[in-house]
Amino acid sequence: MKKIAVFTSGGDSPGMNACIRAVVRTGIYRGLEVYGINRGYEGMIEGDIKRMHSHSVSNIIQRGGTMLKSARSMEFRTPEGRKKAYDNLSALGIEGLVAIGGDGTFTGAKVFYEEFGIPTVGCPGTIDNDIYGTDFTIGFDTAVNTALDAIDKIRDTAAAHDRIFFVEVMGRDAGFIAIECGIGGGAEFVMVPETKTDLGKVVKSLKGLRKSKSSSIIVVAEGDELGNAEEIMGMIKQKIKDPTKEFKVTTLGHIQRGGTPTAQDRVLGSRCGMGAVDGLLAGKTNCMSGVMNNELVYTPFAECIGKTKPLHPDHLSLLDILSI
Amino acid sequence: MKKIAVFTSGGDSPGMNACIRAVVRTGIYRGLEVYGINRGYEGMIEGDIKRMHSHSVSNIIQRGGTMLKSARSMEFRTPEGRKKAYDNLSALGIEGLVAIGGDGTFTGAKVFYEEFGIPTVGCPGTIDNDIYGTDFTIGFDTAVNTALDAIDKIRDTAAAHDRIFFVEVMGRDAGFIAIECGIGGGAEFVMVPETKTDLGKVVKSLKGLRKSKSSSIIVVAEGDELGNAEEIMGMIKQKIKDPTKEFKVTTLGHIQRGGTPTAQDRVLGSRCGMGAVDGLLAGKTNCMSGVMNNELVYTPFAECIGKTKPLHPDHLSLLDILSI
Amino acid sequence: MKKIAVFTSGGDSPGMNACIRAVVRTGIYRGLEVYGINRGYEGMIEGDIKRMHSHSVSNIIQRGGTMLKSARSMEFRTPEGRKKAYDNLSALGIEGLVAIGGDGTFTGAKVFYEEFGIPTVGCPGTIDNDIYGTDFTIGFDTAVNTALDAIDKIRDTAAAHDRIFFVEVMGRDAGFIAIECGIGGGAEFVMVPETKTDLGKVVKSLKGLRKSKSSSIIVVAEGDELGNAEEIMGMIKQKIKDPTKEFKVTTLGHIQRGGTPTAQDRVLGSRCGMGAVDGLLAGKTNCMSGVMNNELVYTPFAECIGKTKPLHPDHLSLLDILSI
Amino acid sequence: MKKIAVFTSGGDSPGMNACIRAVVRTGIYRGLEVYGINRGYEGMIEGDIKRMHSHSVSNIIQRGGTMLKSARSMEFRTPEGRKKAYDNLSALGIEGLVAIGGDGTFTGAKVFYEEFGIPTVGCPGTIDNDIYGTDFTIGFDTAVNTALDAIDKIRDTAAAHDRIFFVEVMGRDAGFIAIECGIGGGAEFVMVPETKTDLGKVVKSLKGLRKSKSSSIIVVAEGDELGNAEEIMGMIKQKIKDPTKEFKVTTLGHIQRGGTPTAQDRVLGSRCGMGAVDGLLAGKTNCMSGVMNNELVYTPFAECIGKTKPLHPDHLSLLDILSI
Question: Could you report the predicted ipTM of this complex, rounded to two decimals?
Answer without folding.
Answer: 0.95
